[in-house]
Amino acid sequence: MSSAEKVNKGGLPSLLISIADGVIDLGWGHPSEALHPLADVRRAAEFVLGGESVAALQYGAVQGFGPLLESLAGFLSNQPAYGMSVPPDQLFLTSGASQGLDMAATLFTQAGDTVYVEEPTYHLAHGIFRDHRLNVVGVATDAHGMRTDALEDKLTKTESPNPVALYIIPTYQNPTGRVLPENRRRRLVELAEEHDFIVFADEVYQMLHAGAPPPPPLAAFDNTPGGRVVSFGSFSKILSPGLRAGWVQAHPALSARFTGSGFAISGGGVSHFASNIANATIALGLLGENIARLRAAYGDRIRAVDAALREFLPGRCAYATPTGGYFFWLDLGEGVDTEALLPYAQWAGVSFLPGRLFSVDDAPSRCLRISFALYDADGLREGIHRLAQALDAYTADRDDHDD
Ligand SMILES: Cc1ncc(COP(=O)(O)O)c(C=O)c1O
After folding, report:
1. Is 246 touching ligand 1 by the criterion CB < 6 Å?
2. pLDDT tens, 34-57?
3. pLDDT above 90: residue 62
4. What is the pLDDT of the chain when averaged over all its residues?
5. Alpha-carbon distance 292 to 151, whole Å?
6. Which residue, judged by its Cα, is nearest atom 16 of ligand 1?
7. What's the pLDDT tens digit per position in 257-301?
């Protein structure tokens, strides 16, 4: 037990995650303990606090800690997954994509406005939109993500109000793992300009490619005069979520809205201390090494899940092997309701997130999401073994009832 954990005598939880004993919970998109770069963050903290400077303990500048704005801009510009130059004046530092999205909703929407999302989409974004009393409308997706033809139809043919914003996860989507191709990225920005809405592009998985890099982030396609894309990045997936540090990338006209917000002016730069740590990991060359390690580890796990699905569920689920990110999206086929499968999974000692959770329309779903972030290859294999046992028991019961 760590000293920090020992301090907690009241029994209140320390972490967001909680898993019943003995269960392999494939529902959590949180990194394994072994993937947290403890030694790197310790070195970075010594770099920040080792001298006499107390600047890391002061309020930070409104746009965010200047040295990180500069080092991050350089770092992103050199990433194969970016394929674009990122000037520092396009960046605003946040305490993660969730806080950035919440802030964007504050700055760019009003209660009652409509926001379009992918159907299915990241279930926890629903809560943020609900807090802002937004009307959330799903847009159809296919194997390549949001269908821009369906989006155009909705924008031009439906009676419902046009959106003020559209939220999308273009790369290694949560929950499906899909990647939006370049032509759709381009079209999406054109539609945003034609129909006057802002695109909130949640790109937290952009750098986690297992093989070839994905298309550049959506901001790379935004050549509009006033800016249409607000892109959210995060250190959560490439360093550690506990740091609560991330960034927004947008046309300077849009990023200025963040910098000028009452929130930033009152509290100063968001996550100033964590930004100092993040900057040190870039300055010391540790961030790039960590991302390379994560890509290799997640690539191995993708192969492990793939092999286990073939071994334990051959012909019983359809899926596209993800090329990066955190997730497999499994389609268990006709007649399966993955929510009804959950109690069987509990019996078998495994868990997952049922597709219904990600549906804006709250539609029952034959799909489920599993994450390969939390468990190593052996844990994943055993989890899928148990999932197959759960599916056997569920199908046997269902078939008994049908007789
Ligand atoms: C699509 C998506 N956006 C945002 C987040 C949360 O990011 P952050 O930790 O930067 O708030 C997650 C984490 O699961 C995610 O999957």
Report:
1. yes
2. 999 999 999 999 999 998 889 999
3. yes
4. 95
5. 36
6. 174
7. 999 999 999 999 999 999 999 999 999 999 999 999 999 999 999
Which residue's CA is minimally distant from atom 14 of ligand 1? 29
Per-residue pLDDT at 9 exceeds 70? no
C-alpha of residue 28 to centroid of ligand 1, in Å:
12
Peptide bond into 31 cis (omega under 30): no
Q: Is the CB of 249 under 6 A from ligand 1?
A: no
* Cα gap 317→211, rounded to integer Å: 24
- Tell me whether strands 246-250 and 327-331 are parallel, antiparallel or unpaired: unpaired
Whether omega for the bond prior to residue 87 falls within 30 degrees of 0, making it cis, is: no
What's the 50 CA to ligand 1 centre distance in angstroms? 31
121 Cβ below 6 A of ligand 1: no
Q: Tell me the C-alpha distance between 81 and 201, whole Å.
A: 15
- Ligand 1 mean position, distance from CA 52 (Å): 35
Task: Go through the domains of the chain in sequence order and give each one's CATH number.
Answer: 3-30+292-402 (3.90.1150.10), 51-284 (3.40.640.10)
Per-residue pLDDT of 64-104, as tens digits, reads 999 999 999 999 999 999 999 999 999 999 999 999 999 99
Distance 231 CA to ligand 1 centre (A): 13
Residue 190 tokens, joined: 């054109």
Question: CA nearest 92: which of 255, 243, 254?
Answer: 255
SS3 200: strand
pLDDT surpasses 50 at 6: no
Test site for ligand 1: of 178, 237, 270, 353, most ligand atoms within 8 A of the Cβ? 237
Measured from the Cα of 246, ligand 1's closest atom is 10
Whether 37 is in the pocket of ligand 1, judged by its Cβ within 6 Å, is no
Q: What is the pTM of this model?
A: 0.96
d(CA 197, CA 277): 35
Name the residue of 206, 207, 236 whose CB sits within 8 Å of the most ligand 1 atoms, as the mutation to test its pocket: 236
